């Protein structure tokens, strides 16, 4: 099989010539060339030999030579994009996020090497969306409360798509009711929401709970390569970032292997608890958004919700 070429046709009528092929060309090489010419991602290519009876080509045999899958000089290939099921699309998207996270983890590891610094708190607004604003900060490095609604939508879509996993026992209310509730700007986020956003972004979120001086690791069992830290004082979340001592930009995401920053987070939790930099959930004041009633502590809020059906509260 000396040098030869192939003809490509797409469903849209485009035609291309693939040249500079030889006996050493692999299926992987061909897929890359077809993808470059047609702009169809290599992983969703569907290719058949172009004369009846049409023969679908097995493009999964990437390391084999073209002759092994029946391609010869002058063949015409008809190229299309394979239609994926919704589950396959989710798997592809998840795999892409994993690959991007692995790349980012390597970059962060290189950035962290020899980069000393101190872990600091970035204050975000106390507007009932502090969790979402904090997560937005560790992802982008910016305090942007307007992005909170996008995260609420991600959570609602995730919960709505799996009513068996996210049942009333887990959510504390019917699935549809929860989805409507979390979309409201006055609804607070907590452990369920952190867990969902951790899985969505493929990042371990470590919540530094200064009321108990512990760190709750969301996504710990998923073996993500990256972590970010959130500070929780009982009712409010703030993001943490590393202020470099060597002039590097502030860092909000860290390789899992970076034990130094994790130890700083542990120490921060202990110091904050000892100086009582937290909110006693049994004493803070809440306002019922539905009826404007003032309530003291978590217990009164729960009793009020049970008695009236009101579930929207804001901090005073």
From TrEMBL:
GO terms for molecular function: cysteine-type deubiquitinase activity; zinc ion binding. CDD domains: OTU_OTU1, Ubl_OTU1. Residues 84-111 form a coiled coil. It comes from the Eukaryota. It is found in: Cytoplasm. Its EC number is 3.4.19.12. Residues 4-86 form the Ubiquitin-like domain. GO terms for cellular component: cytosol; nucleus. Residues 119-243 form the OTU domain. Its main location: cytoplasm. Gene3D superfamilies: 3.90.70.80, Phosphatidylinositol 3-kinase Catalytic Subunit, Chain A, domain 1 (3.10.20.90). It catalyses: Thiol-dependent hydrolysis of ester, thioester, amide, peptide and isopeptide bonds formed by the C-terminal Gly of ubiquitin (a 76-residue protein attached to proteins as an intracellular targeting signal). Hydrolase that can remove conjugated ubiquitin from proteins and may therefore play an important regulatory role at the level of protein turnover by preventing degradation. This is Ubiquitin thioesterase OTU.
């Amino acid at each position: 099989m000396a040098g030869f070429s192939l003809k490509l046709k797409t469903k849209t009528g485009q035609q291309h010539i693939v040249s500079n092929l030889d006996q050493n060309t692999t299926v992987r090489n061909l897929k890359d060339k077809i993808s470059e010419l047609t702009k169809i991602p290599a992983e969703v290519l569907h290719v058949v030999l172009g004369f009846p009876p049409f023969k679908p080509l097995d493009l999964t045999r990437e390391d084999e030579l073209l002759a092994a899958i029946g391609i010869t000089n002058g063949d015409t290939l008809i190229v299309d994009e394979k239609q994926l099921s919704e589950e396959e699309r989710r798997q592809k998207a998840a795999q892409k996020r994993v690959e991007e996270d692995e790349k980012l983890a390597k970059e962060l590891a290189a950035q962290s090497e020899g980069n000393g610094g101190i872990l600091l708190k970035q204050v975000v607004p106390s507007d009932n969306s502090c969790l979402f604003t904090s997560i937005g900060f560790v992802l982008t490095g910016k305090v942007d409360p307007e992005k909170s609604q996008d995260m609420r939508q991600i959570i609602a879509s995730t919960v709505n798509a799996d009513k068996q996993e996210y049942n009333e026992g887990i959510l504390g209310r019917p699935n549809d009711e929860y989805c409507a509730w979390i979309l409201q700007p006055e609804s607070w986020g907590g452990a369920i929401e952190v867990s969902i956003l951790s899985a969505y972004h493929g990042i371990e979120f470590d919540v530094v709970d200064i009321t108990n001086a512990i760190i709750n690791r969301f996504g710990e069992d998923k073996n993500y390569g990256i972590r970010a830290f959130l500070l929780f004082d009982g009712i409010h979340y703030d993001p943490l970032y590393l202020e470099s001592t060597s002039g590097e930009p502030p860092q909000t995401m860290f390789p899992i292997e970076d034990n130094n920053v994790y130890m700083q987070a542990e120490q921060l939790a202990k110091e904050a608890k000892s100086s009582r930099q937290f909110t006693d959930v049994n004493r803070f004041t809440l306002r019922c958004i539905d009826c404007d009633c003032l309530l003291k502590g978590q217990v009164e809020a729960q009793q009020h919700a049970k008695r009236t059906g009101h579930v929207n509260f804001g901090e005073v």
